[in-house]
Amino acid sequence: MAVQTTSDRPRKLAGYDFYHQILGSPKLIVAPMVDQSELAWRILSRRYGAQLYVLTPSAHAYRSQAFNPSFLEEGSNAHDRPLIVQFCANNPSQLLTSALAVQDHCDAVDINLGCPQDIARKGHYGSFLMDEWELIHDLINILHENLSIPVTAKFRIFPSIEKTVAYAKMLESAGAQILTCHGRLRTQRGQNTGLADWAHIKAVKEAVRVPVFANGNILFHEDVEKCLKETGADGVMSAEGQLYNPALFAPASPGNLSSTLIGAHPPHADLALEYLAIVKSLKTPTPTSAVKGHLFKIMHPALSRETDLRERLGRIRGSNEMKNRMERDAVEAIKGGQMIDDLITIEPTTGLRVLPHWLSQPYFRPIKSPTEASKRASSPTLDSHEHEDVKRARLSGQSATRDVDTL
Q1: Which residue from 147, 272, 346, 391 lies 20 to 30 Å from 360 (Cα-Cα)?
Q2: CA 354 – CA 366 distance, rounded (Å)
Q3: pTM of the predicted model as reported, rounded to 2 decimal places
Q4: Are 171 and 155 in contact, with CB atoms under 8 Å apart?
Q5: Cβ-proximal residues to 318 (8 Å cutoff; 6+ apart), any chain
Q6: pLDDT at residue 402 above 80?
Q7: How many angstroms separate the Cα of 37 from the Cα of each of 40, 140, 287, 340?
Q8: How far, in Å, CA of 103 to CA of 124, rounded?
Q9: For the segment 57-96, what is each residue's pLDDT rounded down to a tens digit?
Q10: Which of 106, 115, 181, 227 is catalytic?
């Protein structure tokens, strides 16, 4: 994929010229994720097929802790391009100030119009701007008129296709050169995430003249082609699916032991070790909270079994114990004459495949009955442990670079 650097660029390109000539026509895009978009993860993602990364400093103002080019690694042509930096905002002039600080280190600036979380409600940004079209127009247009690089936008849908299309056309008219349509409503989050509506995305794609990325329902490798075919989108973007399996965009290796899995599902302990090796190799500090968050997600399938290792992960210390235990379980299964396909089960409430616990795989929320939901609220699960460990690390503000050992 031929990609031009910022310094090579003679003029600011727009729409498909930008998509093809600067970004290299990417079809596999990693979504911006709060506290999970750091350089080490971007490098790992690109190793496993990601063609474009959208990172988020998750701030109204630029902060060097979230994107720090001073070490000559973040935003570098060597291993961090193509790259789009996303900001949340509700003040056009403040947004422009932040965008100007990063424009020489990325290929575009994206505006977060999709975050549905309570922090976005309190901060008045993300999907909670969906009804303020004039403000959104101003946020996009000020970047379109004043930056040396393009502006893009990521947004959620309205219940009606007609209003969603009108919204997308407004974003385009304001100056957005790529639109990412997340096919979920603002209310679809957490336990109520549900399925994304690809019909809305298809309608947006057919209505605008700029490239469109489809976001939602990308859990397995084969979902990529399904989504591209059903929506007509120029690329697919994955967030949570890629967090749990950073090899989501990679095809299965020739030695794959499954006849039904066409995508890569490496042993998750190997992925975790590879990620930690990247963290240790960089000059750019990696926040402890980011490292813990990634490790808990990558190895989620096994942590409900290997409960003693969860505490070690909370300290980002330990040994190769997880890798050793997973290799033990895999060998035992193969000795018993079972193939990977024999070990795949179906989660009854979603109909989705559950892979053997030593393999990387997507995480999805089973549909809960009201009784189960109330029990869950009063009984902490693995996810709540993960949240608390990451929260403590975030409050400490530590870098994990010196704290990382192998797992």
Answers
A1: 391
A2: 12
A3: 0.84
A4: yes
A5: 309, 312, 405, 406, 407
A6: no
A7: 8, 23, 11, 31
A8: 24
A9: 555 555 555 788 888 999 998 889 999 999 999 999 999 9
A10: 115
